[in-house]
């Protein structure tokens, strides 16, 4: 589910189909939003020193309290902003042009953020040569975002 981050209010805003029964269980519930960053399998054959298979990753866990709403003005704002954000990369972005009555088919979700935890595993336990070799191998298989994260971490060591 896509969300809009509201830094001033420390909230996430999103929406889901009203036909989806999950929203009925969310009201005033504590929730966990998991944002998965780049991740990939790491072969022990990429190490210069003996090792075992593993998985490198970056993730963010956002804990908060959910509320639901059906205010059409708020829903239109969310849909229009999400659309603008996701259409921005297109040569001819689609501009919101829909009947306001269509908003009756969705429910807004607001998450009041209580805690944010970031976790990453980028072979920090390996020596620098193994880390560099893994980064190179990740680039060769097209996992450039994860390779860059590793390189950034190596540079900060």
Automatic annotation (TrEMBL):
InterPro entries recorded for this chain?
Answer: Split_barrel_FMN-bd, TR_PAI2-type
- Highest taxon, organism lineage: Bacteria
What Gene3D superfamilies does the record tag this protein with? Electron Transport, Fmn-binding Protein, Chain A
Protein name as it appears in the record: Transcriptional regulator
Q: Which organism is it from?
A: SAR86 cluster bacterium
